[in-house]
Amino acid sequence: MKSLVKFQLIWFFLALSVFPFGLNAIQKMGVVNMNKIFTSYYKTKPEDARIKKQSEVYREYLTSLNEARNKLNAEFIKLRDSAQNIAYSDAERENNRIAAQNKYRQLQAKDVEIQQYNDDKKKQLFDEYDKMRKALIDEVVSVVRSKAKREKYIFVMDSSG
Asked: What's the N-to-C CA distance of the chain in angstroms?
């Protein structure tokens, strides 16, 4: 958008130098709301829906990872409690303690996996959305430019900022 504004300003001043207002030529200037045009552009909604669907797929997998983590946590708690239960023999408590430590390591590994998956997918979705948005903005800008050129506007300004 910033490059569009710079382009528009350069175009405006260039047009002023080539076509001064003193001439009898009709000078047309226009104002558009690029934000409104972008949101109502026919390709925006399908692309947003596609990214949202991909986000749901990632969220479902994240839910399954969290369910597996909760299962590991329940197993860890059971083993930890068994390791401290005086009703068991010393050997059984020691075996349960070792099993609880192993389960705890698995639990930590699952936490790291969940965090890494979440971070990676957030970044991937953000990058994909950003790429899609830039491509659509470029399309919208080219459509606005071609219409402005066709209708002989010397300056078109974006009111959305």
From this structure: 8
pTM of the full predicted structure?
Answer: 0.68
> CA triplet 111, 117, 122: central angle to 5 degrees?
130
User: How distant is the alpha carbon of residue 110 from its chain centre?
Assistant: 24
Pair 72, 103: CB distance under 8 Å: yes
Query: What is the rounded (10 degree) CA torsion for 100, 101, 103, 107?
Result: 130
Encode pLDDT of 30-81 as tens digits: 888 888 988 999 999 999 999 999 999 999 999 999 999 999 999 999 999 9
Burial level of 56, CB count in 10 A (0-12/13-18/19+)?
exposed
Nearest to 100 by CA among 118, 121, 85, 115: 85
